[in-house]
Queue: 3 jobs
Job 1
Amino acid sequence: MNQLEGSSLAVVLPVALALYFLASLVYTAIYNIFFHPLAHVPGPKLAGATYLYQTYHCFVGGSRYYVKIKKLHDIYGPLVRITPDEVHLSDPDNYEKINYVGSKYGKSALYDAFGIGYSTFSTRSPEVHRIRRGALNPFFSRKMVLELENIVQIRAEKLTTLVKQAFSAGKALNLHYAFRSISVDVITDYAFGQCYDLLDRPDLGETFFDMVQGIGPTMWLFMQWPGLQKIALGMPPAIASFMSPPVGQVIQLTAHCRKQCAAVKEAMDSGRAETRPSIFQALLSPQEKDVDYVIPTVDDLKDEAYSVLAASADTTGNAMTVAAYKVVSNPEIFAKVKKELEAEFPDPNERLSFVRLETLPYLSAVIKEGLRLSFGVPGRLPRDVPEGGATFNGVFIPAGSVVSMSSWVLHQDPEYFPDPLKFDPDRWLDPKEARRIDKAFVPFGKGTRGCVGMPLAYCELYVSLGTLFRRFPTMKSNVLTPADLVYDDYFSGYHPTSATKFHVTGSI
Ligand code: HEM
């Protein structure tokens, strides 16, 4: 081959590859729009044609595809095709058709993007999930939460100390981070038997939470291009951190979880007892398990630990932040909360027990509004349609397609929540109305795949908020704008890094 032929090949080859790529993109788009089994579902043509539409909204302007999806429902109705293979639903009547106990709807391929395939959270098959979830359930049951309530009470006392220290020094306390730290300290103490003690750090865990938030975008990246995940996570940590700090952080956090799991397994193998049963010990023990239960390896356990940590931190933190901010910044609501708490707990320094706090109707309504407007997981929860397909609002969706619903859409449905963005505890006070609107209230999901940590989350919310409101009745908050309270969706919702964080000031 002479030099001329070599150089023309160097030009022709990339052009040919580009043309091939373009042609296959056009071919796929035409197929998706006109011949795909979901071609009959309404929605923007571009969203049905290519995944790049979703990618654009997940990366540009914060990760806010969930906001766009709600707007698409206003245009297209209760079913919207949001990717070539996925239909988003907005009618609350459909929620329990998908999310019921014993549901045959498995989790979609999106869950592979988390890279924690063994975890109960990411397990896609309903059959395998039933066995894994069965092993996890007893550890997070209400009974167990009541037995281990002291773990939460210790953090409520620490929070009291932190507020007192800040107020007596004339300083503001950053509750945004303090609430998240409570959540991580509780779960690491409760489930791992080894507390991270973020509340004791001078930055209240800010660096830890910045790291967790930094991991977020990689999830969308791996979802869009799954091949990247194996390459990225297989890299030596130092190289990964150099090439992509967030991927380095994923590797670092998983390595940390793995180390904890290995230490417990080693202790169990050598017959050393833990001071208190941990989730690892429970999962490694064959007692009271399904006959098909397979004892997990250390790597499997690491997936479970990582998922429980990630699932609990910002979800609980967001709910506490929204509830507390809305109460403290609204004197009328704050006055009602204080009156109810003072009547039940005349001595502000007594321990406010979870079961007594739960009986207070107004505080309970405040917590429900906090959960409603913090949205739990704001984005969609995608599920594979099982064999036989399914019909939603008269539209048939074939098996193998993905259907999804989201709290962001349901929690703002005006038929259930008039003036939806108003923080209005009163809407929960009439028991008949509360039962009606409960249908569209899904912060924890529902059914078989609903949140396993719900009893623990409620305990944290009641005890931390009840204690704070009772002991600091004159505290004031800084002012947050809607832009400070919006979420970037990385499955958990994260306030943008540039957002002003929730602080309180006051005197003691
Ligand atoms: C206010 C706090 C919380 C909210 C709003 C929340 C919300 C949710 C939601 C919506 C799901 C369903 C996710 C899906 O379908 O993919 C879920 C699942 C899950 N949550 Fe939570 N969560 C909270 C706290 C916790 C805590 C404290 C834990 C700790 C144990 C936890 C552990 C889990 C796990 C392991 C799953 C997966 C369950 C399964 O697939 O069987 N969550 N959570």
Job 2
Amino acid sequence: MAEMNFGGVVENVVTSKEFTLDKAREVLKNETIAVIGYGIQGPGQAGNLRDNGFNVIVGQREGRSYEKAKADGWVPGKTLFSVEEAVEKGTVICMLLSDAGQIAVWPTIKKHLTAGKTLYYSHGFAINWQDRTGVVPPKDIDVIMVAPKGSGTSLRTMFLEGRGLNCSYAVYQDASGKAKEKTLAMGIGIGSGYLFETTFQREATSDLTGERGALMGAIEGLLEAQYNVLREHGHTPSEAFNETVEELTQSLMPLFGEKGMDWMYANCSTTAQRGALDWAPRFREAITPVMEWLYLSVKTGEEAQISIDSNSKPDYREKLNAELKAMHDMEMWRAGETVRKLRPENN
Ligand SMILES: NC(=O)c1ccc[n+]([C@@H]2O[C@H](COP(=O)([O-])OP(=O)(O)OC[C@H]3O[C@@H](n4cnc5c(N)ncnc54)[C@H](O)[C@@H]3O)[C@@H](O)[C@H]2O)c1
Ligand SMILES: CC(C)(O)[C@@H](O)C(=O)O
Ligand SMILES: [Mg+2]
Ligand SMILES: [Mg+2]
């Protein structure tokens, strides 16, 4: 544990300096880690654990994801199994099915959660809203979480680049008395940057807020709004897209990702600084009521229910893909395809 000052608030964090990879391997040396679900987090976490020398198997139903697991070197009958077989063989069961899928499969999973096993999550959803998911683990197992704060795709690419994605961690149930060290060992094993403590409830509510808000939903809404206004006032798709997205991702976000928002501002003109400083609070005032509305909808469980109802339908994937295709086909994002092709590195 290291104490760090986060804007005046001291928090305890864990990195591989405090909790080494060797220590993580020692803690989990007698475990068979079963990664259940090979969608987005599954490949990232299973690949990083395997590369870090842990004993890992994968459980995935037949289909596209199963074929991807085979292509990634998981061997049917040796390291790749059906969901039920992998849960039976595993001692640390990593629930990396979709959140809705976890509900459907829970009766099968629960059968094999025998005393002494560990149930591991990467999102607090199933446990936090167990009144809606029906996921109530047996009392004689550990229930833990390491939640990557980013895509499983990034978890893997960053690991291969020698970097790490930050993760939160929590212990919901500690039947063994060793749940926390197993949690930290898993966090280091999947290639975390630094680990910060949370609870299943805090992670579930902040995560649903973030992905509906600043990380995905709100950013899409903001970018569309600006692009549309520019186009309605006669600006070309090229100018509207460059002024809304391309400059943001290629120039300005890397600056504020590197050294903070003031650094990005300081690297823009004084004209831009004056205007942005004047308009930021106006946008904040306009958006805060929507953010409050969002948080309430998450906290009451309404957002979780919407996700459960829609993503439990047999055609959930087709419906989501149809909406993503509609996004892809928007003029704004079609313009983006052409802009990306024109990047010097793509020619
Ligand atoms: N996507 C991310 O990068 C990300 C980031 C942080 C946390 N998480 C959490 O990690 C967990 C896994 O997320 P994901 O995005 O990798 O999942 P996903 O939506 O990609 O689904 C993973 C797998 O679950 C399987 N599945 C879905 N429904 C099923 C069902 N009814 N029966 C059997 N299998 C079923 C699918 O075949 C798929 O391969 C979730 O709890 C999620 O909230 C995901
Ligand atoms: C990658 C995200 C958005 O952080 C994750 O929470 C998810 O649900 O995919
Ligand atoms: Mg998230
Ligand atoms: Mg999420």
Job 3
Amino acid sequence: MESAFIELDGVEKVFDVRKKTGFMRREKHEVRAVDGISFTVPRGEMVGYIGPNGAGKSTTIKMLTGILTPSGGRLRVAGIDPSRERTRLARRIGVVFGQRTTLWWDLPLIDSYRLMHRMYRIPDERFAQNLDRCVELLELADLLDVPVRQLSLGQRMRGDIAAALLHDPEVLYLDEPTIGLDVISKAKVRGFLRDLNAESGTTVLLTTHDLTDIEQLCKRVMVIDHGRLMYDGALSGLHEVGESERTLVVDLERELPPIEVESARVVKVEGPRQWLAFPAAESAAPLVARIAAEYPMVDLSVREPDIEAVIAKMYAEKVTS
Ligand SMILES: Nc1ncnc2c1ncn2[C@@H]1O[C@H](COP(=O)(O)OP(=O)(O)OP(=O)(O)O)[C@@H](O)[C@H]1O
């Protein structure tokens, strides 16, 4: 079994675009959508792939599926060069684009699945098993006879996820799988993906603008901007890279002047409650002990930094890992 299931080494994608620069005049210029990206993903891992609009996420996924050919570098998925052997790879990967459906719009959901059964030449027994499992876990039983165009966005998304899994792919690329979904549908999709990864060991690459998806599903996250990898590591490590702060909320017995303590500063006071900011990378325990020793503390809580703020700061500062 290969240890790195997805492998990118210095992968580049350059688009030649013609820009109108005046009447009848067009200038050719290059867009480096992906600018030398290297990473590996071992089998069974669930990784977040995030970045601002136009960062190069979709272009990377399109290269991983073989839709686009890299302009440079080396790329392998399950040992296969995607753009050279796209059909062979298609049997081993599943793709869900949140903003587009792979289902047949006018057909009942079940008919799309039957078409995929034939297209992917899925053995009958395996198809039946996978369909049963998806119908149960994604709660599709009442929807199978409904034409896709009549489904709500959340229902359609669950239908699309099932469609991507009928042929037992070893890797699933998800591009914005929770976009536009309500809170309950999001929770259902996330729960399903978590179970899928834990039980079937499916490798998942998840692109999303909703950082809660990442927080709830991925231990590892890669941040891309301007076609370059800016961060690759644990989600918790992003706080340190972003030099963010955590907040200690302290309830005192009574209103007192701002607490004075080493390695933290008071950022807000409201009656007997005070908010102290301290470096996210440091443990709260010694700080709490110091405050408890000198002040009449009755309660406390620690607030984690807002991950969205950390990432926004990273983009702004162009921090490289
Ligand atoms: N076919 C194409 N021709 C020319 N430029 C392209 C093409 N596809 C993408 N680009 C450009 O490449 C860059 C990266 O685009 P890409 O769609 O990969 O970004 P993204 O991170 O997926 O963004 P979003 O979050 O908005 O989907 C952008 O500047 C985009 O305009």
